């Protein structure tokens, strides 16, 4: 980016409407982003809002659905580091539809914006991702993570001899990390109902208007999908002294 006057995004959407069925019983009485990471005393959404504020975001729109009132009540009483607006899907719109619906409440519709899934626990420099997005003149940029495979791997030679056992190796593939930078014009490309990853991203990829930003080496990233993920996140945070 050229010069300090070029603005980084200062607004974001958080998708927080999923039911989190694989996290039951934690999600029996709260939406998935309201589940606390053990030992932190703060729900996932609280960590996300702090991270976004640290990265220069001043306004967040949270797209709610399942047990929205629980999240809204927490927001009403929490000391928040930025301005938060909530929108509630009265019927499931899908991730792309949810993004479009929430983006309609962004305070600056003519400016770029970040988005993140509400079950992501991560820390990396969002401004660097925004610069990457700008340099490639992309309509959308998605963060790419290389997660560790949850099983041990077996390495063999061409003849079939076992050479080594590797515990939880990194995946050979990059995956969508659930964090995005979008241009202002991207909102109009989103479906009213449906999944942007199936309906919008493939078209942008064919037109070379979709960029992928690999997370920096050593950046922390974890999707909180199961109870094991909560336990592992707590261990990792404790090891990092957070």
From TrEMBL:
Domain Nucleotidyl transferase: residue ranges: 12-238
InterPro entries named among the record's database cross-references: Mannose-1P_guanyltransferase (IPR050486), NTP_transferase_dom (IPR005835), Nucleotide-diphossugar_trans (IPR029044)
Stored Gene3D superfamilies: Spore Coat Polysaccharide Biosynthesis Protein SpsA, Chain A
A Pfam family of this chain: NTP_transferase
Membrane-crossing segments per the record: none
Xref: CDD domains: NTP_transferase
Name the record gives this protein: Nucleotidyltransferase family protein
Provenance organism: Streptomyces bugieae
Lineage of source species: Bacteria, Bacillati, Actinomycetota, Actinomycetes, Kitasatosporales
């Amino acid at each position: 980016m050229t010069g300090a006057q070029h603005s980084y995004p200062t607004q974001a959407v958080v998708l927080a409407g999923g039911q989190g069925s694989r996290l039951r019983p934690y999600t029996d009485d709260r939406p998935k982003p309201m589940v606390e990471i053990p030992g932190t005393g703060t729900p996932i959404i609280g960590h996300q809002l702090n991270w976004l504020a640290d990265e220069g975001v001043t306004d967040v729109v949270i797209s709610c659905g399942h047990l929205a009132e629980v999240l809204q009540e927490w927001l009403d009483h929490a000391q928040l580091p930025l301005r938060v607006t909530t929108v509630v899907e009265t019927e499931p719109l899908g991730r792309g539809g949810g993004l479009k619906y929430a983006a309609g409440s962004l305070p600056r519709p003519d400016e770029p914006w970040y988005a993140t899934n509400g079950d992501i626990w991560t820390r990396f420099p969002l401004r660097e991702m925004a610069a990457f997005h700008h340099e490639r003149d992309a309509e959308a940029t998605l963060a790419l993570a290389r997660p560790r495979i949850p099983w041990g791997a077996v390495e063999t030679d061409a003849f079939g001899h076992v050479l080594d056992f590797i515990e939880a190796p990194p995946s050979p593939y990059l995956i969508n990390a659930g964090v995005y930078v979008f241009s202002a014009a991207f909102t109009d490309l989103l479906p009213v109902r449906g999944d942007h990853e199936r309906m919008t991203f493939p078209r942008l990829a064919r037109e070379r208007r979709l960029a992928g930003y690999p997370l920096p080496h050593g950046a922390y990233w974890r999707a909180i999908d199961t109870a094991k993920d909560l336990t592992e996140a707590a261990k990792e945070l404790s090891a990092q002294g957070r």
